[in-house]
Write a structure and sequence with these properties.
It contains eight helices and five strands. By secondary structure, the chain is α/β, with parallel strands linked by helices. The chain has a single domain, classed as Uracil-DNA glycosylase-like domain (Uracil-DNA Glycosylase, subunit E, 3-Layer(aba) Sandwich).
């Protein structure tokens, strides 16, 4: 299945929305990692060039969690799909709530493509907020409490039988500065890898 075509069929085509234009077997995916926002240049996204900026932090994080991966293809082979909560590049330092809301129909449709999901990882506060906005429509409450991520990491959260794990942002230069967050994100990814074994 082509993710982009499938999402455009379900949700419509919109200007400025960046979707993952890749072929994938939805039945093979056991975990989704939701990053915060698409980069301004699609070639720097997870499925862009082999040396894309987003992979420069993601691959070392996965390796730090014990995964033997060297490319996005290796990550997909493990049954892990990575996407972005916000499908439009950010124009300000922070991400506007309207940007999250405009991308929600696409993210919600994307999550519904994978019937064998065991884990959804929320990589950063924007991913956490977007996921809560989706689940709140169905359950009228947040799946993930609005508490600092480090306080939530030892708790287990589930939505429709799927483990939902809040963690830290996996892309961008800031991740390299905060070594403790890199360590915690790698630990969270290691937990996810155990669940999907």
């Amino acid at each position: 299945m082509n993710i982009k075509k499938e999402l455009e069929t379900k949700t419509g085509i919109a200007d400025g929305i960046y979707l993952n234009n890749i072929e994938i077997d939805p039945l093979a995916i056991k975990a989704i990692m939701i990053n915060e926002v698409v980069p301004a240049d699609p070639l720097q996204d997870f499925y862009g060039t082999p040396d894309a900026d987003y992979l420069k932090t993601t691959i070392p994080l996965m390796q730090g969690a014990g995964a033997e991966v060297a490319s996005m293809q290796d990550i997909l082979q493990m049954g892990i799909y990575i996407t972005n909560a916000v499908k439009t590049p950010k124009t300000e330092y922070t991400i506007e709530k309207s940007s999250i809301e405009n991308s929600l129909p696409y993210l919600e449709a994307e999550l519904s493509l994978f019937p064998n999901l065991k884990v959804i990882m929320l990589m950063g506060d924007v991913a956490k907020k977007a996921f809560n906005m989706i689940t709140k429509k169905a359950t009228r409450k947040n799946v993930i409490p609005a508490i600092a991520t480090y306080k939530l990491r030892s708790s287990e959260f589930y939505y429709e039988g799927i483990r939902v794990m809040p963690s830290y942002i996996m892309t961008g230069g800031n991740i390299l500065i905060e070594k403790s967050k890199v360590t915690m994100a790698a630990e969270d990814i290691a937990t996810m890898l155990e669940i999907i074994k």
